[in-house]
Every structure is written in structure tokens, then in C-alpha cells.
Design goal:
Length: 425
């Protein structure tokens, strides 16, 4: 029996999909891998907590260029009653980061001493006979004590942490050269359509430049996955089926782009059904209505397969709603959440009553009010996403918004950009 266009609510569709994944042990974090600690580790997700192997610094270190001394030897030093400390027996020159001598408990910065010769005359040499001090030093002044930054055995970073550049520094400082991270989910992307041509090919009437796979691959990579783009597959059941079977052998997830509707050359649902099971075909969202959710079995390997609508806006938005949370689950990190801002809608907007409606809006501040102006709703207009500052989700059951209605906008841009945007409508 066909499950197409049953208009399943988004939450129900996702629950059905996740339950099916759980039954085949795919609704959990993927296995981990050990990688070198270098700049390429940024953006990866820790698969286990990291504990410090060593302290940082792992010795008492000078925090300044100057002289290592004993603080007690400077007691009573005043501008009018300086104290002279002989080099070697009472003071030793030390650079920033050098280990502190065992006998020393303070450092005096080089700019706070007067180098003198044996007669007490100020000289300009690096290794004077003595130094003259006109202020007493406090114990442990200008010293980085062992473990000031990190103490051996302390927790440096928790499991599920998305590594930032500064995190790499903390891992290295705590004695690590390798790091355990979640394996990148491999996502195979198959664009289908006889009318499609590759980017850069000559364009003739009736041709459509295939850029959805480029957009989808960039999204996958940005979310921590590894995208594999297949070449364009013409509208032929056997060719599409072979491509899906081929990609499934190397992928954790298959995105079958276009062909998810019910036209004479829309084969996605039939292909997924022929290789496994279609769980959902048609979700009550706009744009992105004809999404397919399924699981195929390729030589005993279960691989989720998603039929992504061909219209570019539908493709980009539905992957954010469905695929980003799945990748987050596989990587062991929280799903991404955009910043939000409250705004007033600038004009009356109609919505289909039975669908969750994702409205693209331009957002700006006018006086003390933040306004959200609806943009074109065509699912084929990629520029509506380019120009959008955010998305307003109009829940199903609401047939639209009146001008001036308060809405919550999920922002693509920062609040700073919004507050410094000139809104022209």
C-alpha cells in the first residue's frame, strides 16, 4: 500500500523514523576513531572525556624576564634605602618561561632592577656584578606555579564537545598527542533527473543546472559529516537503483535528491521500497512536503535513505530539520540551535492550515522595534534563502498571521547584524 501524501505531522514522521533507526541500532553514536592532535581536529566531536596527563605548566616557571631571587632577601628595600643582591649567590637572570631555581621563590622583572658593577655604578650589561632593588618583592610574585592552568588528572574537556581551536591548545598543554573523536558519518548524495546538467556545462533551453548536491554536501560537511557526491543519474529506475546500492556500500546515509513526488519519472519512493522499506512519504511541512524517509538493506547493511525534494529551498530546509539532528545523534553532540529574536510581522501572511509553514523573512530594526518582512515563498527560489535573515515557523492549525503579529524568528545571522540592518520593504 502506498504511504504517499498522508501528510504526517513532522513530529510523528521524525518519531517513526527514529524508532525504525533504533530497531536496527542506528539511533546512537557511531564508533570512535583516534586522530592526531593538529589543526584538522578542530570541529570534530570528542567521543570520550579527556583527562590531563600532565600539569600545565609542569614546573614552577618565570612569568617575566628578570631575576630569580628569594623574597626575604629584598625585605626592607625602599626607594631611599635600596638593597643590593649579588649575581650568582643572591640573584640569577631568568627568561619568561624558564624553570625557577629550587632556592628561589620570586622573580623581579628586569625593568624593576638597576644593574651595577662592583663599585655600585649603574651599567648597561646583561650580566652585571649585582642588581639594586628599591622595592621589596612578595613571595611567588611574577611566577607561574606548577598547575596554574591545568592540573594533572583533572578533566580538560567533556565527551560530546565540539573541538574549537583553543580546545586543541588545552589538549596539547595537558600532554595529549592523539584524541578520540566520533567517526564522521558518510553521507552519499545522488542527484537524479534527465533534465539536469553539471555546474559549468553549456546551458540550453530545458536544462537545469544541478546545484542541490553542492548545497547538500556543504551542509553535511558543516554539520560534521563527510559528503560523497554521485554524478547525475538520469530518470531511469534501474540506474537509480544501482546508484543507491553502490553508494550504500560506502555510506551511512543516502540522500536521493529529486524524484520524491508522484510524477511518471519520480522513482525515489519505488527505488527505496525495492531495496528496503519506505516509512514515510509526505510530511506536513511547507516547503518540503514530498520528503521520503526509509531504510534500505544493502547486503545485510541497514542504511537510512531519504528522498529529498528537488526544489532547492525544500531540499535545504528539510535537510536542516531531518538530517542535522540525525548527524548530531551519530556524532554524540547536541543538535544545533540558532539564536532567536522576537519580531513583528510586517504584512498579512496566509499558511496552509494542516502544515507547519517555514516562512523566510528579512529582519531589521526600525526605531525600537524589530520587524520581520516575509520574502518570496517559491520553493524553487534559492535566493529567498540567500536574502533571508531567518525563518518563522507557523505551526499547523494556524492559517496565517495578521500584520503586526508577534513572531519568533530563528536567525541565520547574528543579532548584531540584525540591529545594524537597514530594512527596506
Amino acid at each position: 500500500m502506498s504511504v504517499y501524501l498522508h501528510d504526517i505531522p513532522l513530529e510523528e514522521a521524525l518519531l517513526t523514523f527514529h524508532n525504525a533507526l533504533e530497531k536496527v541500532n542506528l539511533w546512537q553514536r557511531l564508533e570512535s576513531e583516534e586522530i592526531p592532535l593538529d589543526e584538522h581536529a578542530a570541529g570534530r566531536v570528542l567521543s570520550s572525556p579527556v583527562w590531563a596527563k600532565i600539569s600545565s605548566p609542569h614546573y614552577h616557571a618565570s612569568a617575566m624576564d628578570g631575576y630569580a631571587i628569594k623574597a626575604d632577601d629584598t625585605e626592607g628595600a625602599l626607594p631611599s634605602q635600596p638593597v643590593i643582591l649579588q649575581i650568582g649567590s643572591k640573584a640569577t637572570y631568568i627568561d619568561t618561561g624558564d624553570p625557577l631555581p629550587d632556592w628561589s621563590d620570586a622573580v623581579i622583572p628586569i625593568e624593576n632592577v638597576e644593574p651595577v658593577d662592583e663599585e655600585g655604578n649603574v651599567i648597561q650589561t646583561r650580566l652585571p656584578f649585582a642588581i639594586r632593588i628599591r622595592a621589596a618583592a612578595a613571595h611567588w610574585s611574577h611566577i607561574r606555579p606548577m598547575g596554574e592552568d591545568i592540573v594533572a588528572t583533572e578533566l580538560v574537556l567533556p565527551e560530546g564537545k565540539v573541538l574549537r581551536p583553543v580546545d586543541l591548545g588545552a589538549l596539547a598543554a595537558s600532554g595529549h598527542t592523539l584524541v578520540n573523536v566520533s567517526r564522521k558519518p558518510i553521507v552519499g548524495i545522488i542527484p537524479t533527473g534527465t533534465e539536469l546538467i553539471s555546474i559549468g556545462e553549456p546551458v540550453h533551453q530545458g536544462d537545469i543546472i544541478e546545484f542541490n548536491s553542492c548545497v547538500l554536501a556543504a551542509q553535511i560537511n558543516e554539520w560534521g559529516g563527510q559528503a560523497l557526491r554521485h554524478s547525475i543519474v538520469k530518470d531511469d529506475f534501474s540506474r537509480i537503483q544501482s546508484a543507491v546500492r553502490e553508494m550504500a556500500a560506502h555510506s551511512d546515509l543516502i540522500l536521493l535528491n529529486a524524484g520524491s513526488s508522484a510524477g511518471s519519472e519520480d522513482f525515489s519512493s519505488r527505488v527505496i521500497e525495492s531495496l528496503g522499506e519506505v516509512l514515510v512519504h509526505g510530511i506536513a511541512v511547507r516547503p518540503g512536503h514530498p520528503v521520503i524517509l526509509g531504510i534500505i538493506n544493502a547486503d545485510g547493511k541497514h542504511v537510512p535513505a531519504i528522498g529529498v525534494p528537488g526544489y532547492p529551498v525544500s531540499a535545504a530546509l528539510t535537510t536542516e530539520v531531518i538530517i542535522e539532528p540525525l548527524l548530531a545523534r551519530w556524532l554524540g553532540r547536541p543538535p544545533q540551535h540558532r539564536p532567536t529574536v522576537n519580531a513583528a510581522i510586517t504584512k498579512k501572511t496566509n499558511s496552509p492550515a494542516g502544515d507547519d509553514d517555514f516562512l523566510r523573512v528579512s529582519v531589521g530594526k526600525v526605531g525600537n522595534r524589530i520587524l520581520a518582512a516575509p520574502l518570496s515563498r517559491g520553493a524553487g527560489m534559492i535566493t529567498s534563502l540567500v536574502r533571508a535573515d531567518g525563518i518563522v515557523k507557523i505551526p499547523r492549525g494556524i492559517q496565517g498571521l495578521s500584520a503586526g503579529s508577534d513572531v519568533k524568528v530563528e536567525l541565520f545571522n547574528s543579532v548584531f547584524e540584525i540591529e545594524n540592518t537597514i530594512l527596506v520593504i
